[in-house]
# Entry
Amino acid sequence: MMAGRSLRAPENLADTVEDAHQSVRRVVDTPAPVIVPRVLDAARSVSAALESVEEIISYSFDEVEPALSTSLSPVYSREAPQLILASAEDAIAHSRGVADEHAAIISERGPAPTPRSRELAVRPVDPEVAEANAQLSREISGSWLTPSYLGTSIGERFARTPPVLTTEPQEFFNLIDEALSYSDSRGFYFLNTSHVVIREDESSEADRRVVITHEQLHYAAWLGGGRTIRWRRDEGRETVLGYVSWLHEGLTELHAQQLTRAHGYAPSRVAYGLETAASYYLQRLVGQRRLRQAYLSGDFSEVRRIVNARLGGGTFDRLARMDGGYEALIYLRSRLEAAGIDYNAWQDPLSDVQLISVESGGPTGN
Amino acid sequence: MEIHKTEEYQSAMRKIKSWKEKIGKSERGALLRILDEKKAFFANMRKTNPPLYQIFQINDKEISELVAEQLSSSKLTID
# Structure
Protein backbone atom coordinates (compact mmCIF):
# COMPACT_ATOMS: atom_id res chain seq x y z
CA MET A 1 0.00 0.00 0.00
CA MET A 2 1.19 3.46 -0.79
CA ALA A 3 -0.92 5.36 1.70
CA GLY A 4 -1.00 9.07 1.21
CA ARG A 5 0.29 8.97 -2.37
CA SER A 6 -1.80 9.91 -5.35
CA LEU A 7 -3.07 6.95 -7.32
CA ARG A 8 -3.22 8.87 -10.55
CA ALA A 9 -0.90 7.60 -13.24
CA PRO A 10 1.50 10.21 -14.60
CA GLU A 11 -0.38 12.35 -17.11
CA ASN A 12 1.69 11.33 -20.10
CA LEU A 13 1.93 7.65 -19.20
CA ALA A 14 -0.33 6.31 -21.92
CA ASP A 15 1.43 8.32 -24.59
CA THR A 16 4.84 7.31 -23.29
CA VAL A 17 3.93 3.64 -23.39
CA GLU A 18 2.42 4.01 -26.84
CA ASP A 19 5.57 5.75 -28.09
CA ALA A 20 7.66 2.89 -26.74
CA HIS A 21 5.37 0.37 -28.37
CA GLN A 22 5.67 2.15 -31.72
CA SER A 23 9.44 2.45 -31.41
CA VAL A 24 9.83 -1.26 -30.77
CA ARG A 25 7.57 -2.02 -33.71
CA ARG A 26 9.76 0.17 -35.93
CA VAL A 27 12.82 -1.78 -34.84
CA VAL A 28 11.16 -5.09 -35.63
CA ASP A 29 10.29 -3.84 -39.10
CA THR A 30 13.61 -2.18 -39.85
CA PRO A 31 16.16 -3.60 -42.29
CA ALA A 32 19.64 -4.32 -40.90
CA PRO A 33 21.63 -1.26 -42.20
CA VAL A 34 19.50 1.30 -40.36
CA ILE A 35 18.63 -0.70 -37.29
CA VAL A 36 21.17 0.77 -34.80
CA PRO A 37 19.65 4.26 -34.42
CA ARG A 38 16.19 2.74 -34.23
CA VAL A 39 17.32 0.34 -31.47
CA LEU A 40 18.73 3.27 -29.50
CA ASP A 41 15.54 5.24 -30.03
CA ALA A 42 13.42 2.30 -28.89
CA ALA A 43 15.65 1.69 -25.86
CA ARG A 44 15.20 5.30 -24.76
CA SER A 45 11.42 5.14 -25.20
CA VAL A 46 11.12 1.82 -23.40
CA SER A 47 13.25 3.10 -20.57
CA ALA A 48 11.03 6.19 -20.19
CA ALA A 49 7.90 4.04 -20.26
CA LEU A 50 9.29 1.63 -17.67
CA GLU A 51 10.04 4.46 -15.30
CA SER A 52 6.44 5.63 -15.59
CA VAL A 53 5.03 2.12 -15.28
CA GLU A 54 7.12 1.41 -12.19
CA GLU A 55 5.48 4.38 -10.55
CA ILE A 56 2.10 2.71 -10.68
CA ILE A 57 3.11 -0.94 -10.41
CA SER A 58 3.94 -0.36 -6.76
CA TYR A 59 0.35 0.54 -5.97
CA SER A 60 -2.07 -2.05 -4.74
CA PHE A 61 -4.52 -2.83 -7.50
CA ASP A 62 -7.28 -2.73 -4.90
CA GLU A 63 -6.79 0.99 -4.89
CA VAL A 64 -6.94 1.46 -8.64
CA GLU A 65 -10.24 2.08 -10.42
CA PRO A 66 -12.57 -0.86 -9.72
CA ALA A 67 -13.58 -1.19 -13.37
CA LEU A 68 -10.04 -2.01 -14.37
CA SER A 69 -8.60 -3.57 -11.24
CA THR A 70 -9.76 -7.08 -12.01
CA SER A 71 -7.97 -7.45 -15.27
CA LEU A 72 -5.51 -5.19 -17.00
CA SER A 73 -3.22 -2.41 -15.91
CA PRO A 74 -4.81 0.99 -16.51
CA VAL A 75 -1.88 2.52 -18.37
CA TYR A 76 -3.89 3.41 -21.49
CA SER A 77 -6.66 5.11 -19.53
CA ARG A 78 -6.47 8.93 -19.34
CA GLU A 79 -7.64 11.30 -16.64
CA ALA A 80 -8.16 14.12 -19.13
CA PRO A 81 -6.97 15.23 -22.54
CA GLN A 82 -3.90 17.44 -22.82
CA LEU A 83 -5.90 20.11 -24.62
CA ILE A 84 -9.11 20.82 -22.73
CA LEU A 85 -11.29 23.26 -24.62
CA ALA A 86 -13.09 25.55 -22.25
CA SER A 87 -15.29 27.24 -24.83
CA ALA A 88 -16.46 27.28 -28.42
CA GLU A 89 -13.94 30.08 -29.07
CA ASP A 90 -11.09 27.81 -27.96
CA ALA A 91 -12.38 25.12 -30.30
CA ILE A 92 -12.65 27.54 -33.23
CA ALA A 93 -9.06 28.63 -32.63
CA HIS A 94 -8.02 24.97 -32.58
CA SER A 95 -9.83 24.37 -35.88
CA ARG A 96 -7.92 27.27 -37.44
CA GLY A 97 -4.62 25.77 -36.29
CA VAL A 98 -5.61 22.40 -37.76
CA ALA A 99 -6.57 24.07 -41.06
CA ASP A 100 -3.19 25.87 -41.20
CA GLU A 101 -1.30 22.68 -40.54
CA HIS A 102 -3.13 20.78 -43.27
CA ALA A 103 -2.77 23.67 -45.71
CA ALA A 104 0.99 23.38 -45.11
CA ILE A 105 0.88 19.66 -45.94
CA ILE A 106 -0.94 20.44 -49.19
CA SER A 107 1.76 22.99 -50.05
CA GLU A 108 4.45 20.37 -49.48
CA ARG A 109 2.71 17.98 -51.85
CA GLY A 110 2.08 20.41 -54.68
CA PRO A 111 0.57 23.82 -55.33
CA ALA A 112 -0.39 25.60 -52.13
CA PRO A 113 -4.10 26.13 -51.46
CA THR A 114 -5.26 29.46 -52.82
CA PRO A 115 -5.84 32.22 -50.24
CA ARG A 116 -9.51 31.99 -51.17
CA SER A 117 -9.80 28.25 -50.39
CA ARG A 118 -7.90 28.75 -47.11
CA GLU A 119 -10.28 31.57 -46.22
CA LEU A 120 -13.33 29.45 -47.06
CA ALA A 121 -12.02 26.58 -44.91
CA VAL A 122 -12.10 28.72 -41.80
CA ARG A 123 -15.09 30.89 -42.61
CA PRO A 124 -17.66 31.13 -39.81
CA VAL A 125 -20.70 28.97 -40.44
CA ASP A 126 -24.29 30.09 -40.02
CA PRO A 127 -24.52 30.93 -36.28
CA GLU A 128 -27.95 29.34 -35.99
CA VAL A 129 -26.67 26.03 -37.39
CA ALA A 130 -23.59 26.19 -35.16
CA GLU A 131 -25.69 26.86 -32.05
CA ALA A 132 -28.26 24.17 -32.90
CA ASN A 133 -25.46 21.61 -33.30
CA ALA A 134 -23.72 22.76 -30.13
CA GLN A 135 -26.99 22.32 -28.27
CA LEU A 136 -27.42 18.80 -29.65
CA SER A 137 -23.86 18.05 -28.63
CA ARG A 138 -24.48 19.23 -25.06
CA GLU A 139 -27.66 17.17 -24.90
CA ILE A 140 -25.88 14.03 -26.14
CA SER A 141 -22.90 14.39 -23.82
CA GLY A 142 -25.11 15.31 -20.86
CA SER A 143 -28.10 12.98 -21.30
CA TRP A 144 -27.02 10.10 -23.54
CA LEU A 145 -23.37 9.47 -22.70
CA THR A 146 -23.92 9.43 -18.96
CA PRO A 147 -21.84 7.62 -16.32
CA SER A 148 -24.45 4.87 -16.30
CA TYR A 149 -23.91 4.33 -20.03
CA LEU A 150 -20.15 4.84 -20.13
CA GLY A 151 -19.42 3.29 -16.74
CA THR A 152 -18.77 5.37 -13.65
CA SER A 153 -15.06 5.88 -14.09
CA ILE A 154 -15.01 6.91 -17.75
CA GLY A 155 -18.36 8.68 -17.44
CA GLU A 156 -17.16 10.91 -14.64
CA ARG A 157 -14.00 11.87 -16.51
CA PHE A 158 -16.06 12.52 -19.64
CA ALA A 159 -18.41 14.75 -17.64
CA ARG A 160 -15.51 16.66 -16.05
CA THR A 161 -14.04 17.56 -19.44
CA PRO A 162 -17.03 17.34 -21.78
CA PRO A 163 -16.55 17.37 -25.53
CA VAL A 164 -16.77 20.70 -27.32
CA LEU A 165 -18.28 20.60 -30.80
CA THR A 166 -17.63 22.95 -33.65
CA THR A 167 -19.51 22.98 -36.92
CA GLU A 168 -17.17 23.57 -39.81
CA PRO A 169 -17.83 24.39 -43.46
CA GLN A 170 -17.46 21.77 -46.16
CA GLU A 171 -14.25 23.52 -47.29
CA PHE A 172 -12.62 22.72 -43.93
CA PHE A 173 -13.27 19.03 -44.53
CA ASN A 174 -12.11 19.33 -48.15
CA LEU A 175 -8.84 20.86 -46.97
CA ILE A 176 -8.10 18.03 -44.53
CA ASP A 177 -9.22 15.41 -47.05
CA GLU A 178 -6.94 16.89 -49.70
CA ALA A 179 -3.96 17.01 -47.33
CA LEU A 180 -4.45 13.39 -46.28
CA SER A 181 -5.70 11.98 -49.60
CA TYR A 182 -9.10 11.03 -48.30
CA SER A 183 -12.59 12.04 -49.41
CA ASP A 184 -16.05 12.69 -48.04
CA SER A 185 -15.11 12.80 -44.37
CA ARG A 186 -18.08 13.80 -42.22
CA GLY A 187 -16.67 14.24 -38.73
CA PHE A 188 -13.43 14.35 -36.78
CA TYR A 189 -12.24 13.73 -33.27
CA PHE A 190 -8.85 15.27 -32.51
CA LEU A 191 -6.95 12.90 -30.22
CA ASN A 192 -5.72 14.16 -26.87
CA THR A 193 -8.24 17.00 -27.00
CA SER A 194 -11.93 17.33 -26.16
CA HIS A 195 -12.68 18.71 -29.64
CA VAL A 196 -15.16 17.05 -32.01
CA VAL A 197 -16.21 18.41 -35.39
CA ILE A 198 -19.23 18.02 -37.65
CA ARG A 199 -19.97 19.33 -41.16
CA GLU A 200 -22.20 22.31 -41.72
CA ASP A 201 -24.13 20.57 -44.50
CA GLU A 202 -25.26 17.58 -42.41
CA SER A 203 -28.94 18.24 -42.94
CA SER A 204 -31.29 15.95 -40.99
CA GLU A 205 -31.37 16.04 -37.22
CA ALA A 206 -31.09 12.25 -36.97
CA ASP A 207 -27.95 12.27 -39.13
CA ARG A 208 -26.44 15.11 -37.10
CA ARG A 209 -27.20 13.28 -33.88
CA VAL A 210 -25.60 10.03 -35.02
CA VAL A 211 -22.43 11.76 -36.27
CA ILE A 212 -22.08 13.82 -33.08
CA THR A 213 -22.64 10.71 -30.94
CA HIS A 214 -20.10 8.79 -33.02
CA GLU A 215 -17.43 11.48 -32.57
CA GLN A 216 -18.18 11.87 -28.86
CA LEU A 217 -17.85 8.11 -28.42
CA HIS A 218 -14.39 8.31 -30.01
CA TYR A 219 -13.50 10.83 -27.31
CA ALA A 220 -14.98 8.71 -24.49
CA ALA A 221 -13.11 5.63 -25.76
CA TRP A 222 -9.91 7.64 -26.00
CA LEU A 223 -10.30 8.65 -22.34
CA GLY A 224 -11.05 5.07 -21.33
CA GLY A 225 -8.14 3.48 -23.21
CA GLY A 226 -10.45 1.90 -25.76
CA ARG A 227 -8.24 2.67 -28.75
CA THR A 228 -5.63 0.25 -27.45
CA ILE A 229 -7.11 -3.23 -27.75
CA ARG A 230 -5.60 -5.69 -25.31
CA TRP A 231 -6.41 -8.75 -23.26
CA ARG A 232 -5.15 -10.95 -20.48
CA ARG A 233 -4.29 -14.42 -21.75
CA ASP A 234 -5.24 -17.53 -19.76
CA GLU A 235 -1.78 -17.85 -18.27
CA GLY A 236 -1.99 -14.25 -17.08
CA ARG A 237 0.18 -12.44 -19.61
CA GLU A 238 -1.14 -9.28 -21.18
CA THR A 239 -1.33 -8.96 -24.97
CA VAL A 240 -1.42 -5.41 -26.31
CA LEU A 241 -2.63 -5.39 -29.90
CA GLY A 242 -3.02 -1.61 -30.19
CA TYR A 243 -5.38 0.26 -32.49
CA VAL A 244 -7.55 -2.00 -34.65
CA SER A 245 -9.23 0.41 -37.01
CA TRP A 246 -12.04 -1.80 -38.34
CA LEU A 247 -13.10 -2.98 -34.89
CA HIS A 248 -12.88 0.44 -33.28
CA GLU A 249 -14.90 2.12 -36.05
CA GLY A 250 -17.42 -0.72 -36.22
CA LEU A 251 -18.04 -0.58 -32.49
CA THR A 252 -18.21 3.23 -32.49
CA GLU A 253 -20.84 3.26 -35.22
CA LEU A 254 -22.79 0.37 -33.72
CA HIS A 255 -23.09 2.16 -30.39
CA ALA A 256 -23.83 5.54 -32.01
CA GLN A 257 -26.59 4.04 -34.15
CA GLN A 258 -28.14 2.10 -31.30
CA LEU A 259 -28.12 5.10 -28.96
CA THR A 260 -29.56 7.43 -31.60
CA ARG A 261 -32.29 4.98 -32.55
CA ALA A 262 -33.08 4.22 -28.91
CA HIS A 263 -33.83 7.93 -28.50
CA GLY A 264 -36.27 7.88 -31.39
CA TYR A 265 -34.15 9.19 -34.28
CA ALA A 266 -33.56 7.10 -37.41
CA PRO A 267 -30.41 8.13 -39.30
CA SER A 268 -30.53 7.84 -43.08
CA ARG A 269 -27.30 5.86 -43.33
CA VAL A 270 -24.90 3.60 -41.44
CA ALA A 271 -21.21 4.45 -41.73
CA TYR A 272 -18.76 1.57 -42.04
CA GLY A 273 -21.53 -0.93 -42.77
CA LEU A 274 -19.34 -4.02 -42.94
CA GLU A 275 -17.41 -3.13 -39.79
CA THR A 276 -20.64 -2.29 -37.97
CA ALA A 277 -22.23 -5.60 -39.00
CA ALA A 278 -19.23 -7.60 -37.76
CA SER A 279 -19.38 -5.65 -34.48
CA TYR A 280 -23.10 -6.40 -34.20
CA TYR A 281 -22.40 -10.14 -34.46
CA LEU A 282 -19.87 -9.77 -31.64
CA GLN A 283 -22.50 -7.96 -29.60
CA ARG A 284 -24.96 -10.81 -30.12
CA LEU A 285 -22.32 -13.29 -29.02
CA VAL A 286 -21.09 -11.58 -25.87
CA GLY A 287 -23.87 -9.20 -24.80
CA GLN A 288 -24.32 -5.44 -25.01
CA ARG A 289 -22.88 -4.38 -21.68
CA ARG A 290 -19.79 -6.55 -21.86
CA LEU A 291 -18.95 -5.45 -25.39
CA ARG A 292 -19.50 -1.78 -24.56
CA GLN A 293 -17.19 -2.00 -21.57
CA ALA A 294 -14.50 -3.62 -23.75
CA TYR A 295 -14.97 -1.01 -26.46
CA LEU A 296 -14.57 1.87 -24.02
CA SER A 297 -11.73 0.46 -21.91
CA GLY A 298 -9.83 -1.57 -24.53
CA ASP A 299 -9.89 -4.61 -22.21
CA PHE A 300 -11.22 -7.41 -24.41
CA SER A 301 -10.29 -10.27 -22.04
CA GLU A 302 -13.90 -11.25 -21.33
CA VAL A 303 -15.06 -10.71 -24.92
CA ARG A 304 -12.19 -12.88 -26.15
CA ARG A 305 -12.93 -15.61 -23.61
CA ILE A 306 -16.60 -15.83 -24.62
CA VAL A 307 -15.99 -15.59 -28.38
CA ASN A 308 -13.38 -18.34 -28.19
CA ALA A 309 -15.61 -20.50 -26.00
CA ARG A 310 -18.52 -20.19 -28.44
CA LEU A 311 -16.70 -20.17 -31.77
CA GLY A 312 -13.50 -22.06 -31.03
CA GLY A 313 -10.09 -21.28 -29.56
CA GLY A 314 -8.08 -18.64 -31.41
CA THR A 315 -11.15 -17.12 -33.12
CA PHE A 316 -10.97 -13.73 -31.40
CA ASP A 317 -7.20 -13.40 -31.76
CA ARG A 318 -7.45 -14.01 -35.51
CA LEU A 319 -10.42 -11.69 -35.85
CA ALA A 320 -8.71 -8.84 -34.05
CA ARG A 321 -5.68 -9.10 -36.33
CA MET A 322 -7.72 -8.73 -39.52
CA ASP A 323 -7.42 -5.67 -41.75
CA GLY A 324 -11.08 -4.85 -42.36
CA GLY A 325 -14.71 -5.50 -41.61
CA TYR A 326 -15.33 -7.48 -44.80
CA GLU A 327 -12.67 -10.05 -43.98
CA ALA A 328 -13.89 -10.15 -40.36
CA LEU A 329 -17.52 -10.63 -41.40
CA ILE A 330 -16.71 -13.54 -43.71
CA TYR A 331 -14.61 -15.18 -41.02
CA LEU A 332 -17.21 -14.60 -38.28
CA ARG A 333 -19.98 -16.04 -40.42
CA SER A 334 -17.92 -19.13 -41.19
CA ARG A 335 -17.19 -19.65 -37.47
CA LEU A 336 -20.85 -19.10 -36.55
CA GLU A 337 -21.95 -21.64 -39.15
CA ALA A 338 -19.34 -24.14 -37.93
CA ALA A 339 -20.62 -23.68 -34.39
CA GLY A 340 -24.22 -24.23 -35.53
CA ILE A 341 -25.33 -20.71 -34.57
CA ASP A 342 -28.02 -19.32 -36.85
CA TYR A 343 -27.09 -15.68 -37.26
CA ASN A 344 -29.93 -15.15 -39.73
CA ALA A 345 -32.29 -15.31 -36.77
CA TRP A 346 -30.67 -12.27 -35.18
CA GLN A 347 -32.97 -9.34 -35.66
CA ASP A 348 -32.24 -5.83 -34.58
CA PRO A 349 -33.81 -2.42 -35.10
CA LEU A 350 -30.59 -1.56 -36.90
CA SER A 351 -32.12 -3.03 -40.01
CA ASP A 352 -29.71 -1.38 -42.43
CA VAL A 353 -26.93 -3.42 -40.91
CA GLN A 354 -28.96 -6.58 -41.37
CA LEU A 355 -29.09 -5.96 -45.09
CA ILE A 356 -25.36 -6.00 -45.63
CA SER A 357 -24.46 -8.57 -48.20
CA VAL A 358 -21.01 -10.06 -47.94
CA GLU A 359 -21.23 -11.34 -51.48
CA SER A 360 -21.89 -7.92 -52.97
CA GLY A 361 -19.27 -6.38 -50.71
CA GLY A 362 -21.38 -3.59 -49.36
CA PRO A 363 -24.58 -2.46 -47.77
CA THR A 364 -27.68 -3.01 -49.81
CA GLY A 365 -29.79 -0.93 -47.48
CA ASN A 366 -30.26 2.82 -47.61
CA MET B 1 -17.57 -15.19 -57.32
CA GLU B 2 -16.90 -13.89 -53.84
CA ILE B 3 -14.97 -10.64 -53.94
CA HIS B 4 -12.24 -11.75 -51.56
CA LYS B 5 -11.18 -14.47 -53.98
CA THR B 6 -10.60 -12.07 -56.88
CA GLU B 7 -7.16 -10.95 -57.95
CA GLU B 8 -8.23 -7.31 -57.60
CA TYR B 9 -9.08 -7.83 -53.92
CA GLN B 10 -5.88 -9.76 -53.20
CA SER B 11 -3.79 -7.17 -54.98
CA ALA B 12 -5.40 -4.32 -53.02
CA MET B 13 -4.73 -6.19 -49.76
CA ARG B 14 -1.05 -6.52 -50.69
CA LYS B 15 -0.86 -2.83 -51.53
CA ILE B 16 -2.43 -1.82 -48.20
CA LYS B 17 -0.17 -4.10 -46.18
CA SER B 18 2.85 -2.69 -47.98
CA TRP B 19 1.83 0.92 -47.22
CA LYS B 20 1.17 0.10 -43.58
CA GLU B 21 4.59 -1.52 -43.24
CA LYS B 22 6.29 1.48 -44.85
CA ILE B 23 4.55 4.16 -42.77
CA GLY B 24 6.33 3.31 -39.52
CA LYS B 25 9.78 3.53 -41.06
CA SER B 26 9.46 6.26 -43.67
CA GLU B 27 10.74 9.80 -43.71
CA ARG B 28 8.48 12.74 -44.51
CA GLY B 29 9.10 12.69 -48.27
CA ALA B 30 8.27 8.99 -48.50
CA LEU B 31 5.10 9.53 -46.45
CA LEU B 32 3.95 12.22 -48.85
CA ARG B 33 4.60 9.83 -51.76
CA ILE B 34 2.47 7.17 -50.04
CA LEU B 35 -0.36 9.72 -49.86
CA ASP B 36 0.00 10.43 -53.59
CA GLU B 37 0.00 6.74 -54.46
CA LYS B 38 -2.97 6.08 -52.21
CA LYS B 39 -4.94 8.93 -53.71
CA ALA B 40 -4.50 7.61 -57.26
CA PHE B 41 -5.12 4.02 -56.23
CA PHE B 42 -8.39 4.60 -54.37
CA ALA B 43 -9.68 7.23 -56.81
CA ASN B 44 -9.41 4.62 -59.54
CA MET B 45 -11.06 1.95 -57.37
CA ARG B 46 -13.97 4.27 -56.47
CA LYS B 47 -14.53 4.91 -60.15
CA THR B 48 -14.11 1.42 -61.55
CA ASN B 49 -15.31 -0.81 -58.72
CA PRO B 50 -17.44 0.98 -56.07
CA PRO B 51 -18.37 -2.22 -54.15
CA LEU B 52 -14.68 -3.03 -53.77
CA TYR B 53 -14.04 0.51 -52.53
CA GLN B 54 -16.70 0.06 -49.84
CA ILE B 55 -14.67 -2.86 -48.53
CA PHE B 56 -11.44 -0.89 -48.52
CA GLN B 57 -12.78 2.47 -47.37
CA ILE B 58 -11.75 1.64 -43.79
CA ASN B 59 -8.17 1.06 -44.96
CA ASP B 60 -8.22 4.23 -47.05
CA LYS B 61 -9.05 6.28 -43.95
CA GLU B 62 -6.78 4.26 -41.64
CA ILE B 63 -3.75 4.97 -43.82
CA SER B 64 -4.63 8.66 -43.88
CA GLU B 65 -4.76 8.63 -40.07
CA LEU B 66 -1.49 6.75 -39.74
CA VAL B 67 0.30 9.15 -42.06
CA ALA B 68 -1.28 12.16 -40.33
CA GLU B 69 0.11 10.89 -37.03
CA GLN B 70 3.61 11.13 -38.49
CA LEU B 71 3.17 14.34 -40.46
CA SER B 72 1.30 16.67 -38.14
CA SER B 73 0.95 17.53 -34.49
CA SER B 74 -2.83 17.17 -34.59
CA LYS B 75 -3.58 13.46 -34.45
CA LEU B 76 -7.11 12.81 -35.57
CA THR B 77 -9.77 10.18 -36.01
CA ILE B 78 -11.45 10.66 -39.34
CA ASP B 79 -15.23 9.99 -39.32
Q: What stands out?
A: Residues 27-71 of chain B form one domain. Helices of chain B lie at 7-23, 28-48, 50-71. Chain B has a mean pLDDT of 94.
